[in-house]
């Protein structure tokens, strides 16, 4: 019984010594620097005031009605529906990073991206009284009556 207790104590002592000597050695692993993006490229996910097309939603619909060209290929195929476009409204109201999230094909995707890309400057989103870059999604409708 005494030998067993001594072996147990000896094992605990060895474990303690090996752990403490390991932690005393300095870490020589080189630290990797993370790529921290330029603050100019941060995009606010939540803002107090969302970006807005100049004149509001009704003006957006009028803009689309006036400048949208229903692609001939889509007309021949009888395509109608919505193209979802994502873009960033910069602090200046300029439209950037236009991408089609869900398209229809037949030239509708390219037309929806063109419409968004060529809009006048938007009213930027704001947070705590400051204009911020905001990611924005919008549907563009296509149909025979458009």
TrEMBL record:
Could you list this entry's UniProt keywords, alphabetically sorted: Cell inner membrane, Cell membrane, Membrane, Protein transport, Signal, Transmembrane, Transmembrane helix, Transport
A GO cellular-component term linked to this record: plasma membrane protein complex
- What's a BP term from Gene Ontology annotated to this protein? transmembrane transport
Q: Does the keyword Cell inner membrane apply?
A: yes
MF (Gene Ontology): energy transducer activity
**Cell compartment(s), UniProt:** Cell inner membrane
Which named protein is this? TonB family protein
Q: Which residues form the signal peptide?
A: 1-20
Question: Does the keyword field hold Signal?
Answer: yes
Q: State the InterPro entries in the record.
A: TonB, TonB-dependent_transducer, TonB/TolA_C, TonB_C
Domain TonB C-terminal as annotated: residue spans:
55-146
Q: Which organism is it from?
A: Spirosoma oryzae
Tell me how this protein sits in the membrane: Single-pass membrane protein
| One protein family per Pfam | TonB_C
Q: Give the UniProt family note.
A: Belongs to the TonB family.
